[in-house]
Amino acid sequence: MTTLRQFEYLVTVVDTGSFTRAAELLHVTQPALSHQVRALEKAVGGRLLERLPRAVRPTPMGRAVLPHARAALADAERLRAAALSAAGLAGGELELATVYSVSLGLLPPVLRAWRAAHPEVRIRLREFAHTEDLRAAMTAGQADVAVGPLPTGWEGPIRELGTEEFVLVLPSGGADGPEGAEEPEDAPVPLAALAGCDWVHYAPGNGLADVLDAACAEAGFRPGVAVRTEQTAAAPLLAAAGLGPALVPANIVPPGFDGVVRRPEPPVRRPLVAYTRTRPDALTAAFVELLSRRVRLLPDVAAGGTAGGTAGGTAGGAAVGPESGPEGGPTGSADVSADGFS
Question: At 285, which helix (H) or strand (E)?
Fold first, then answer.
């Protein structure tokens, strides 16, 4: 039985005149390419390519087969385009809403993958400082889909994305750092050990301020404030510069970060979801499906900093109280339905 993939291999070898170049363009190994061409030759009952010392050319049978192979590939592309057009994936615009930290840490690689798969679909990104602002925007119809912490009592479709973990960023420099920073790199730092520190805090309008306050309250203290920032991305940089510890989502810490990254004890975690008002259309459903496959909630942020992971993060309790979760959202569980996203 012949396949479209075999036709693609044949056409690419003929067009490039080289198995080596064709394998590079197709992102396959040359032995795999040669195997599929031989399988196609076996299926049609004769040799399709003549291998010359410095080139490859089609045999008479190959020249007879080649137009049909090209036509089959063209028909397949027209079929795909028709399906995408009918599903709304060949154009248009998707309005996406999220909170600052998610747009900073989680969405860039997802949006890159989406752009590569659907270059004709425009993305309008709306960012909010607090989960309640995000929820209000969704309720008002300002976006097609929201990505963030689980909203309280949401009645529309929800897709679970997994659990995100927070880390502590401590000033580098050992002796000037808080108690616990000199422990082995993979040892968690008790939040209670940081009770006497002035923290890199967040501006009141940023929901991560609620996260820090709730986590510290559970550890038995109220955090002092060295500086407040409105920009989530600034928190780890300010902490590494020596202003005080910061509590940040693990996925916003950049690679090669010059600071001490440690896990807090008890851990601070939050569930993240994608949600819509009603059953999503084909465009929104396709984005959420790609999001659920591509999102990486718990990357390696530093040697010994956290355990690496993918979507789903680390299961378990959260140090943030149920009344005020990450970015102002709840940390408790809810009945989550994937209806409309499958």
Answer: helix 282-294
Q: What is the per-residue DSSP string for 3-65? A: -HHHHHHHHHHHHHT-HHHHHHHHTS-HHHHHHHHHHHHHHHTS--EEE-SS-EEE-HHHHHH
pTM over 0.85: no
Can you give the pLDDT of all 342 residues of the chain as single tens digits? 889 999 999 999 999 999 999 998 888 899 999 999 999 999 999 999 998 988 899 999 999 999 999 999 988 888 877 776 666 676 778 999 999 999 999 999 999 999 998 888 889 999 999 999 999 999 999 999 999 998 888 989 999 999 899 999 998 754 334 544 455 567 899 999 999 999 999 999 899 999 999 999 999 999 999 999 999 999 999 999 999 999 999 989 988 888 899 999 999 998 999 999 999 988 899 999 999 988 887 665 433 443 333 333 333 333 343 223 445 444 333 333 444 654
Listed in sequence order, the residues at least 6 apart from 51 whose beta carbon sits closer than 8 Å to its beta carbon are 19
Residue 27 to residue 213: CA distance in whole angstroms: 50
Which residue type occupies 148?
A: G
Element (H, E) at 239: helix 234-240
